[in-house]
């Protein structure tokens, strides 16, 4: 019997230019790079810049400088700041996001909400959020109104887990009636991410395990939008790198990789390789790590 030939992975680096890239970002990008290169796949550079209030030119430039210094190459998307701004900024894809929002509106799948984030967060923490604005009849196109996806019943979704097969996941309670359009009219992260991945043909998504709930929410949204290509994508949620029991993130003011390691790339490779279960002598270059890497050896990060 002829073996079924699976499509080569198309995966992505998807940084948000709201801060400088830190080692946690690079750890995730390295796993993404190794997965793609091990399987003759392609990598898209997708820079998520919809939140313009937090975007800074120096953060966008840092993405290119850091990836190029490390040698983490990609195949699709922008190859310079100028090309990104002219062709690949999310601002250039607003029509796609608007079309998705209109589809949800026509289907009656969303409701208007004027609740503050603080109130919704509090109610969710109390396990007492039932979409309190759902029956207010607020005008979707009114001033200062966000759009929330109706998740009553919170049906299960199927997730293809990379190297692990199919799993059935219930929408997590914290994702109840999640936002798809912000108060300022900007498409929310979940919606833009799903639409972008489908638009660029992404079929393999690598993320930290802290974004597992987001993946389930996005699969739920994809079903509502009829985006079967996203539903068919494979997901790999890798362990997080911890620093004193706290995950590395821009919000925690994690150090820039360039500030912390430049010009000693070798030191960084050894550190990253250790988290991937590799011996130091297998971390002299990306090519050496590629030869030695196996997904079975990805270990959980240990708090320093």
Q: What is the oligomeric state here?
A: single chain
Number of strands: 11
- List unreliable stretches of 5+ residues: 299-304
The structure class reads: alpha/beta
In brief:
With 304 residues, the chain is α/β, with parallel strands linked by helices.
Features:
304 residues; alpha/beta; four-stranded mixed sheet; three-stranded antiparallel sheet; 11 helices; globular; disordered C terminus
Polypeptide structure, described:
This protein is α/β, with parallel strands linked by helices. It is 37% helix and 15% strand. The protein contains eleven helices and eleven strands. The chain has helices at 23-38, 57-70, 81-88, 94-106, 117-125, 189-199, 212-225, 228-231, 257-261, 265-275, 286-292, and strands spanning 10-13, 42-45, 110-113, 146-149, 156-161, 165-170, 179-181, 204-208, 234-238, 242-243, 246-247. A four-stranded mixed β-sheet has the order 6-5-9-8. A three-stranded antiparallel β-sheet has the order 3-4-7. It has a two-stranded parallel sheet with strand order 1-2. β10 (242-243) and β11 form a beta hairpin. The protein starts with 9 loop residues before the first strand and ends in a 12-residue tail after the last helix. Mean pLDDT is 91; it is low at 299-304.
